[in-house]
Amino acid sequence: MASSAVRSGFWDGPLGYAQAWVVAFASLVVGLGFHFAIGYDSPAGMGAVLWMAWALLASMLVIGRAMRTSQVVQWITGIPFAVASTSLVGAIALVGGVVPQSVVQGWGAPSVWSAWPFLMALFPMLANLLGSIGKRSWPLNYSNVLYILSHAGLAVAIVGGAVSGATLERKTMTLFEGQPSQLAEDAQHRQTKMPFTLTLREFRMDTFPPTLAIARRDASAPDGAHVVNGSSFLKAGALERIDGYKVEVLEFLPKAASVGSRWISVPWKTASPAARVRATAPDGERFEGWVSCGGVESSGAALELGPDVALAMPRPRPRKFQSSVDVDHGGTRRSVVVEVNGKATVGGYDLYQLDYDVAMGAASPYSVIEVVRDRGLPVVYLGMAMMLAGATLHLWHGIGGRK
Amino acid sequence: MTAVALWLGATAAYGVDALSSRKSRWALVADLLMALGAVCGIALIAALWHNLGRPPLRTLGETRWWYAVAVPTLGLLLGWRFQTRAMNALACLMGAMFATLNLQHPEAMDRTLMPALQSPWFVPHVVVYMVAYSALGLSSLIAGWTLVRSLWAKKALSPSDVDLPHRLVTVGLPLLTCGLLFGAFWAKEAWGHYWTWDPKETWAFLTWFAYLTYLHVRLRHSVRPALNLGLLVVGFATLMLCWFGVNAMPTAQESVHTYTRD
Ligand code: HEM
Hints:
The complex is a heterodimer.
Chain A: H1 2-12, H2 17-37, H3 43-66, H4 71-76, H5 79-98, H6 101-106, H7 116-135, H8 142-167, E1 169-176, E2 181-185, E3 191-207, E4 213-217, E5 225-229, E6 239-242, E7 245-259, E8 262-265, E9 272-280, E10 286-292, E11 303-306, E12 309-312, E13 318-329, E14 332-339, E15 344-346, E16 349-356, E17 366-373, H9 377-400
Antiparallel strand pairs in A: 1-17, 2-3, 3-13, 4-5, 4-12, 6-7, 7-8, 7-9, 9-10, 11-12, 13-14, 15-16, 16-17
Chain B: H1 2-20, H2 24-52, H3 60-81, H4 88-104, H5 122-153, H6 163-191, H7 199-220, H8 225-245
Helix pairs in contact in B: 1-2, 1-4, 2-3, 3-4, 3-5, 5-6, 5-8, 6-7, 7-8
Bound molecules: protoporphyrin IX containing FE.
C-alpha cells in the first residue's frame, strides 16, 4: 500500500526529468524484451510491432494538437522528455560507434541500428518529436514555421529512412566484358533477375601520374619498411629532394616494358610506367638506374641506394573508375557510363560503380555495379530539404544575433 | 613552402596579440595583427590548393590547416559582429596551436585525390564542417575556460557567462547540420546510400546530438550556467573523437567506403 502511494506520488506530481528518464529506461527494457522474445528471424512479428508503433506515433500528431493543454501531453512534448529520450538514443548510438559489428552480432542482433533496443529507444523520442510538431502546428506564425522546418524535417527524414529500410533494394551485378547479364545478387547471395540486361563494354581505370618514394628497411614499421613519398608527378627533367636524396628524372616512359636491364616504350594499354633516374645521396654518392612500379606484364624495378635503402615507384593512385555499359531495357538499347560519383539511372534503378579486380587494376576483366532502388528517397530528401531550410534560417539568426 | 614562412610570421603575430589583447590601448594593434595573420593563413591555403592542383581537404593535416585559419578568422569576424573581443586571444592561441602542430609534423604532399572524393559536394561539405567545428570549438574552449576560472576563483557563475559561447553555438550548430546533410547527399551520389551508420557517420551523428542536447537544455535552463557550459565541453569532446579519434576506434576497420582505402 505504502509503495503504491509513493508510486502515484511520483507520477502525480509535476512531471519532469525523473519521470522522463523512467520512460526512456522502460523503452530500453521493452526493447531488450523484444530482443529475446521476438528476435530478428520473424519479419512478420517484427513488422507487426513496428506498424503498431508507427500507428501510435502518428496519433501523437493529433494528440499533441488536440490535448495540448493536458499536463501529461505538455510533459511528453516538452524539453525534459526530449532531452531524456534523445540522450538514450545517443547512448545506444555510442555503443554502435565503439563496439564493432561482429561483437554486436555475437549478441544476436544484425547491427545496433536494427536491434530492438535501438528501435524501441527511438519510440519515446519520436513520440516527443511528433507530439511537439502537432502542438506547434498552429498558428502558422514565424516561430512555429521555423520549429516545423527543423523538427518536422527531421521527422520526415526519419520516416523516409524507415520506408527506405523496409523497401530498399540494393544488389550487385558482376559484369564481365562482352557478356550480357541480367542477374543481380543481394547481400545474402540470393540471385534475382533484373528487368534489364547489362553488358560491360569496357572497364577503365585512369590513374594519376606516378611519383617516387624512398624506402628504408625498418623492422618496427608496419610493412617492414619506412617509406618517404615524393610529391611531384613524374616527368622527364623533374627534380626533387626526397628524404635527403636529390632525385632527378632523366627519362620517363608512361607505358613501358623491361628488356633485360633496360625499359622501352610499348603501346599496350596495361603496360606500367618506368623512369630512368639519378639519385644523389647526402654524402654526394650518385646512383643511376631504372625504376618502375610494375604491373600485369612486368614486375617492378627499384634502384638500390645502399644495403637497406632503395628508390622505388609506388603504384600510381587511381583517378577514375569507369564502366561503359550497354543497356537493353525492354527492347530499347542505349549506352551509359557509370563511374564513382557518377551514377546512371536505368528503369528506376540507380547504377553505381562498386568494385573491380584490384590486383589487375586497369586490366580488370570485370566490373561490379551496384543497382539500388530506394522508394523512401524522395521522402528523405524532402525532410532533409526542410532541415536545410530550417538550419539556414537558424544560421541567419545566429549571425544576425537576433532571436 | 614560402607560405609556411609567412604563416610563422602570422603565428608570431597571434602570440603578440594573445599577450596584448588585454590592454585596451593594444587592442587595435592586436586586431590588426590578427587580421594580418588571417590574411596570411588564407594565402597559405590558396597556395596549398594551387601547388597540389586539388582542394587541400583530404588528409587530417590538411583539414587542420583550414581549422587553424578558420578559428582566428571566424573569431575576428564574429567578435566584430557581436561587439566583443573576449574570444580573440583564445582564437589566436588555438589557431597558433593548430598551425604549430602542423609545422611540427609536416605531411608529405600528396597530390592525388581518390575518385570518391572528386565530387561537387566535397568542398562545401568539408569547408562547412571546418567552419562549424571552429565556431563550436571556440564556444567550448570559452566554456571550459570560464568553468575552470570560476572553480579557481571560487566565484559563482552567472547566466551571462554563457552568452558568448551560446551565440557561437547558434552559428556553429546550423552549420554542423548543413555539413551533415551535405555529407548525406554526397554519400548517396558516391556510395548509393545516404546513411549507412559507418563509424564516421555514427560519430558525426553523436556530435550533432551532443550539441542539440546542449541547445535544448539551454532553452529550458538558461539559469544554470555550469550545466550549460559543462554540456558544451562534452560536445567538444565528442567532436574531437569524431574528427581524430574514429581511426583509433575498434570500429574503424568496418568502413564500407571501399574507395577511400588506399
Ligand atoms: C534538427 C535539429 C533540431 C534543431 C535545430 C532544434 C532546435 C530547436 C529550437 C530552436 C527550439 C526552440 C524553438 C521554439 O521554441 O520556437 C526547439 C525546441 C524543442 N525541440 Fe528541438 N531541435 C532539433 C531537434 C530536436 C529533436 C531530435 C527533438 C526530440 C526528439 C526536439 C525536441 C524539441 C522540443 C520538445 C522542443 C520544445 C517545443 C515546445 O515546447 O514548444 N528537437 N528545438
